[in-house]
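Predict structure. Chain length: 244.
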Amino acid sequence: MCDPVIQIEGLTYSYPGRSESTLVDVNLRIRRGELVLLTGPTGCGKSTLLKTVNGLIPHLLGGALAGRVRVDGIETREAGMASLSQKVGLVFQNPDDQLFSPTVFDDVAYGPIYQGLKAADVRQRVEEALAAVHMRDYADRVSHHLSVGEKKRIAIATVLSMKPEILVLDEPSAGLDPRARRSLINLLRELPQTMLVSTHDLPLARELFPRTVIMDHGAIVADGPTAHLLNDAALLEAHGLEKM
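Prediction complete.
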């Protein structure tokens, strides 16, 4: 068995100004190439856990953190955000939080420019990332004029342009109509990265993710094959989820 590309040990975290912990003694290992679904009731700590993987916690959000998070052998507390961004690409639930430039090209180019790449290399990165999400013809469009589904694809392209080894997505299917949701599922199936995806969309989990991790009250309460866990009605009901 290969070494984990994500290794979380004894992780406990509370946000600044809060005495209660949002994450409680979380232990998780994800191997390179795995597709892992993270689910649980609202407020269980899923989004917070994602932010520890790419270094937003503790580097930008602060708070009290105990335990260890390693990405490809790198301790996230010791690594800078720039080096972590080349390992982990985080796609937010709301694509408008990720798209802020005048055009799609500018949005997707932001990361490679921040990395200090030459103009020709930046353009190549943008072209490759847009091709990967089937949005090659959208480079000159205004991001905020796109549909939600199109924005989600561009948000994914903004992290793909950094060539991360790991994709971390927070509720990727939220706000999508059935056609856009199906299109997103097909897109995620094509991408080669290791994935950790937080969602309440259990049918999405069944289609894409062989492994599911269930959280509740800041802790991992179950971790195993998706087909097994999502067929356990008693387990799902005990943790605010419904069998689909």
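Summary: The chain has ten helices and ten strands.
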